[in-house]
């Protein structure tokens, strides 16, 4: 076994050693069952520390290239072929078309309709610093379970943040979750039963639709307008059905980018009182708020609104930290289900988020995001108009623009997009029944990429007669 490590290059020695060993095995110079050099022998021959060899071997064991035999050493593992890639599911036919954004094989494409910010927009330095602080802190934050309601220090910080939004919620009214999707799952399983009926916005959040289907809950679609959900449609549905809940994005709705007006908000609360309706307000884009905004939770005096939010969009999707606000009786039921189904949330992740809230680094990073998103939003709206696109509504903030090219269907847009290495999210993914649509969700954070610019310009051109 002969190879050399580059001590002047940027790659760590551990990674170089791992790569060389894996390449050696992959080229079948080492057969399954072959024994590798001892830790001490390989460290001596490569002039590295024993810990470097141990970590390289451990990485190869974890990835299935080696197996460790206690007291004997490390041996080449028998590698079995993995299952074939599942490419049989057509795009959008299952009603969860956006799942394609997460599948392998599209890494080279620009995901113009995705639901997250670019990694280089995130507060990576501040997040890494918070992780280091927590790692050097109290041992229980690394090893212990989280309390049922969530970490007390985080809930205290959330209480302060909610007060700034005009939402009166003490720490005892706050429950932490594994992101907003976990919060929705807890609520659906606690509040609803198979056969129940709910109101959902259309277009709306595809994952909510799928969750409700999983629990056999009947959905009644409410068209989303530029001012919020269509009040006339809601009044008709309330008069003819008995829905248990309304699920709504008040601010920067996904996918249309529209926000609730005060007039619509007050009428929704009146209807909720008249028809004994609970409202689940998903405010996942709350921290993108720039200027005044209307939230149902700030106007609710009868505790009919269950408020939800998350740090996935602004801070990190990997941390999976969200929260919801509800009355104490419901919160107790939710906390019990949370413990039964998952034994709580991540104490470490909640400590990291709490650290960033307490030291102000999260607030500063979100301020930078708002400015950057606002600039990109204004620029993209002008470019779409010049290129001949139709915009559903000019959002006052957030990440998304809902737009289409008159006369073009999704298939023709997708063809143009592929020619420019762009992956689209179709409007059908945001319809509760997956109905085909010419509308597209565009994430403004990716709109200035050269591939996006070329696609928008070419797609907006008149079709040849």
Automatic annotation (TrEMBL):
InterPro entries: Aminotransferase_I/II_large, HTH_trans_reg/aminotransferase, PyrdxlP-dep_Trfase, PyrdxlP-dep_Trfase_major, Tscrpt_reg_HTH_GntR, WH-like_DNA-bd_sf, WH_DNA-bd_sf. Residues 11-79 form the HTH gntR-type domain. It holds the Pfam family GntR. Keywords: DNA-binding, Pyridoxal phosphate, Transcription, Transcription regulation. In the C-terminal section; belongs to the class-I pyridoxal-phosphate-dependent aminotransferase family. This is GntR family transcriptional regulator.
């Amino acid at each position: 076994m002969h190879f050399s490590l580059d001590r002047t290059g940027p790659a760590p020695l551990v990674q170089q050693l791992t790569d060389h060993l894996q390449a050696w095995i992959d080229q079948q110079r080492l057969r399954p069952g072959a024994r590798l050099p001892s830790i001490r022998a390989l460290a001596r021959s490569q002039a590295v520390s024993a810990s470097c060899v141990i970590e390289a071997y451990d990485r190869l064991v974890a990835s299935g290239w080696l197996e460790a035999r206690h007291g004997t050493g490390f041996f080449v593992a028998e590698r079995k072929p993995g299952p074939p890639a599942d490419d049989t599911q057509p795009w959008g036919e299952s009603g969860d078309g956006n799942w394609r954004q997460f599948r392998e094989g599209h890494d080279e494409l620009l995901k113009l309709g995705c639901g997250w910010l670019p990694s280089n927009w995130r507060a990576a330095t501040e997040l890494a610093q918070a992780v280091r602080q927590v790692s050097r802190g109290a041992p229980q934050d690394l090893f212990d379970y989280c309390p049922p309601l969530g970490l007390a220090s985080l809930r205290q910080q959330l209480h302060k943040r909610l007060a700034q939004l005009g939402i009166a919620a003490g720490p005892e009214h706050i429950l932490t979750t594994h992101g907003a999707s976990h919060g929705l799952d807890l609520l659906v399983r606690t509040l609803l039963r198979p056969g129940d009926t709910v109101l959902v916005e259309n277009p709306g959040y595809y994952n909510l639709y799928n969750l409700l289907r999983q629990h056999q809950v009947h959905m009644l679609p409410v068209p989303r307008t530029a001012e919020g959900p269509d009040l006339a449609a809601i009044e008709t549905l309330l008069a003819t059905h008995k829905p248990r809940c309304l699920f709504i994005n008040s601010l920067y709705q996904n996918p249309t980018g529209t926000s609730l007006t005060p007039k619509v908000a007050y009428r929704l609360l009146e209807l909720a009182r008249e028809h004994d309706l609970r409202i689940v307000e998903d405010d996942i884009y709350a921290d993108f708020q720039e200027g005044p905004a209307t939230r149902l939770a700030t106007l609710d005096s009868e505790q009919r609104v269950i408020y939800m939010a998350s740090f996935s969009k602004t801070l990190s999707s990997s941390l999976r930290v969200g929260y919801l606000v509800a009355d104490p009786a419901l919160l107790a039921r939710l906390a019990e289900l949370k413990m039964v189904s998952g034994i709580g949330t991540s104490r470490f992740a909640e400590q990291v988020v709490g650290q960033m809230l307490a030291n102000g680094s999260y607030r500063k990073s979100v301020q930078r995001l708002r400015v950057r998103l606002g600039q990109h939003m204004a620029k993209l709206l002008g470019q779409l108009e010049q290129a001949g696109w139709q915009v559903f509504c000019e959002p006052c903030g957030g990440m998304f623009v809902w737009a289409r090219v008159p006369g073009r269907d999704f298939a023709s847009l997708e063809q143009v997009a592929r020619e420019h290495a762009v992956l689209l999210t179709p409007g059908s993914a945001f319809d509760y029944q997956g109905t085909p649509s010419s509308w597209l969700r565009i994430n403004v954070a990716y709109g200035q990429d050269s591939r996006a610019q070329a696609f928008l310009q070419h797609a907006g051109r008149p079709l040849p007669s």
